[in-house]
Amino acid sequence: MHATVDAAALLGEVLDTFQATLATQAEMVFTLEAAALRTGYSREHLARLIRTGVIPNAGRRGAPRIRASDLPVRGNNLGSQSRQRYNPITDARSLGLVRSR
Questions:
Q1: How many beta carbons lie within 10 A of that of residue 64, not counting itself?
Q2: For 1-101, where are the alpha helices, taking DSSP H only?
Q3: Burial 40-57 (b: 16+ CB within 10 A, else e)
Q4: pLDDT tens, 57-75?
Q5: Where are the domains of the chain?
Q6: pTM for the full model?
């Protein structure tokens, strides 16, 4: 017995579901404690980023929250909107430059 599947339609459905999941996860809101666990930054540092406007407060005054899509990524310039991914080739090159000095 053989089954015929419309691969393009199936892939389209899978991608739609994946994009909806990503959008839902990006809208998740975390307490400062939970955000600290996820990012490695201290609760105090995250609170300072909210107070200074670097990260928008997704909660209310006295009960700050951080939206998942606004969580800072360690090593990135927090004033920048771009989130860089780890690049092992760039990392190896920068290590080579440090060792050659």
A1: 20
A2: 7-26, 32-39, 43-51, 88-100
A3: ebeeeebbebbeeeebeb
A4: 999 989 999 998 899 887 6
A5: 7-75+82-100
A6: 0.57
